[in-house]
Amino acid sequence: MHVYLKITLCLFSFLTLITLSSCQTSNSLSSDELLQKFEDGRALSLKLAKEESDTYAGSYLGDYSCRCRVFLFTSNGRETLNRYTGDPTFSAKQAEYSLKELVLAKEQTKQQVAMSALLRSSVHIQLDESLNSVSLLVGADNSDVSRKLMELRPSLHPSVMILYPEDVGMVETPRSV
Q1: How far apart (Å, rounded) are the C-alpha atoms in residues 26 and 65?
Q2: Which helix or strand (DSSP H or E) is residue 33 part of?
Q3: What is the pTM of this model?
Q4: For residues 12 and 169, is the Cβ–Cβ distance under 8 A?
Q5: How confident is the model at residue 56 (pLDDT cuts 50, 70, 90)?
Q6: pLDDT > 70? residue 82
Q7: Which residue in 20, 19, 61 sits closest to 37, CA to CA?
Q8: Are 7 and 51 in contact (CB under 8 A)?
């Protein structure tokens, strides 16, 4: 049986509030229209990942109602997004790393963590498009794990954030029971 990652991010709520100010939303969308808007955003995200892989950095919902989607680019975001859509509820933001770079960084981090039994059982790795980062979530803060992470840190991609339980709330890493 696996215990699944449980995480509370105050930072996510803060970023959502910031994003809401940049989204143009309409309060009169039906549930069918919201679903269509969600699907349109998802389809555009997949298309951008394929056709703009060097600059596309991912997307995320800008609010909990699915009325706004934020698309991230490493450069020329607004111009690129305008070539694909004129939807005013889709906005572009600058990001440091492309999605291609983040996926590679996540895979490299997984390989590095896999070399240590201690880290394999103590951390969870995830790609977070909204933060334009790879998160290395530490399940329990103990001195052995911290020391091993300090040794590993210089070899990790700059997008990797090491987050401890006190940084994000409660973290449970997947493990076999």
Answers
A1: 10
A2: helix 31-51
A3: 0.74
A4: no
A5: very high
A6: yes
A7: 61
A8: no
- Partners of 145 in the β-ladder: none
Per-residue tokens: 6: 């449980």
> DSSP states of 57-124 as a string?
EEEEESSTTS--EEEEESS-HHHHHHHH---TTEEEEE-SS-HHHHHHHHHHHHHHHHT-HHHHTTEE
Residue 16 has pLDDT above 60, yes or no: no
Q: How far apart are CA 34 and CA 25, in angstroms?
A: 11
pLDDT in tens, 87-108: 988 999 999 999 999 999 999 9
CA distance 141 to 79: 44
At residue 27, the pLDDT reads 57
Give yes or no for a contact between 101 and 54, defined as CB atoms under 8 angstroms apart. Answer: no
